[in-house]
Design brief:
single chain, about 240 residues, mainly alpha, 10 helices, globular
Length: about 240
Amino acid sequence: MRETIARHLDHDPHFEWRGQSVSRIENLSDIVFALALGMLLLTGAPPQTFSELVHFLISIIPVTASFVILVLIWNAHFVFFRRYALADNTIVVINSILLLMVLFTAYPLRFIFDGLFWYIYGAISGDYTQLLVKEMDLINSARSMAFFGAGYSVIYGLMSEMYAHAARKAEAIGLSTKEILLTRRSVWRFRGEVMIGIIVALSAWLSPLGPFAGFLMVLNWPAAYFVRAWVRDEADAAA
């Protein structure tokens, strides 16, 4: 799939894709991401009754939200290897830690969106049974959000370091001036994600916001816009 995309899709028009073949480190990474995505869906025994089947089908809503976040992380990882084709010792170590953190974050991510979904469902229907079954009271929900925020910040911290390493290797891999600027933009965008993850984790654990600290994740959009605007003029000048 990666090779097909690299050959036929104008996925990154402002960047030369140097990675034209899939390396072993990418194959391993895809397997780990697939495991993490499977962990989001298969969190219990297969449904044995119709009511359990209905419950399983309803769970597609929180699963979809979790799925989107992991796919965004996978896409940043995918773009890195297509842009830079780096697989030196530094990248192997950073990537290995990143994969571990992806697996660590999968279950807290599912718990967060499950808790949010069943809280909204309970507020509408008055039935909080599923929250009680999952032991997702305010305290445990806040802890799950803190675990996720910590894992999220570490993942994007590692991702930013991978891109920063590529920027340091700019001459060796033949990055143009514009490509260096775009790489630095990615570094700062991911560092913004790190800061927001830390804020979410601390707010969930220490502040009255508790599990609702997750709504601070909306800061990602203005932060990304700010970084894009900050770098755009320099990138345009280098075009």
